[in-house]
Amino acid sequence: MTAIVEVSGLTKRFGSLAAVNDISFSIEENRICGLLGRNGAGKTTLMQLLTGQDFATHGDLRVFGMSPVENASVLHNISFIKESQRYPDDFRARHVMKSAPWFFRNWDSDLAERLVDDFRLPLDRKIKKLSRGQLSSIGVIVGLASRAPLTFFDEPYLGLDAVARQIFYDRLLEDYSEHPRTIVLSTHLIDEVANLLEHVLVIDDGRIIIDEEAETLRGSATTVVGTRAAVDSFVGSRTVLHRDGIGGLASVTVTGLSAQERVDAAASGLELAPVSLQQLIIHTTNTTDREFA
User: Fold this and answer.
1) What is the pTM for the complete model shown?
2) Which among 38, 106, 114, 154 is most buried, taking Cβ atoms within 10 Å?
């Protein structure tokens, strides 16, 4: 497949702080990619670089084969929706929907109208009078109805309640299947979007620590539970992502168990449990886990 985003040795510094630190990766077209990590890990800075809103300190990045900085031919094909999206105070929700087609050549007004109904958005209410959830729904509607070839969602749906978030996920998947494009989701609600993701990028302290197909990651980690002696004997020299225990019992999370090793674990009286994508990323980015495992 064609890489729509190509990043090589990319670094962004703010004084002595490397918010993005010598990273390289690519994102293929027509995929849903999760950009995941803790607060302050560098996700938003990376998206600002990819959307031409900031300059890199070092390295190279290409979007649609070109630099996005001050490049209208690239930026016209990008939609960047973020939680802190701001609008003029005198704007009403209706004004946002009316002006959006000026910026997005693939704008679908029928989809936008359907989404307005789905999210029960009061079009005639002033932006400054909208609730956080209603503001979030504006971003979601614009991001989906824009149908931009490259769409970034930087957690604009955090203000939505559980029902509205599920509507967002359903509409995203439904429209993506009919109109494929590249979608990058940055979120802390990993379990909610896990089944949507096709590829996963995890950034931690400015560095990419996971760049993998979502299907490969699902079920790649296993929690082994049993007596402390049996667990320690089974784990041996394996890299441990997380360790917990009480009394004589131990619970250890490891990766890469083969089918035979699973059989051996069961024969040793150990219990095995799959680890969700969210728990895998928590254990991978948790410094305490890494230091004391």
Assistant:
1) 0.89
2) 154
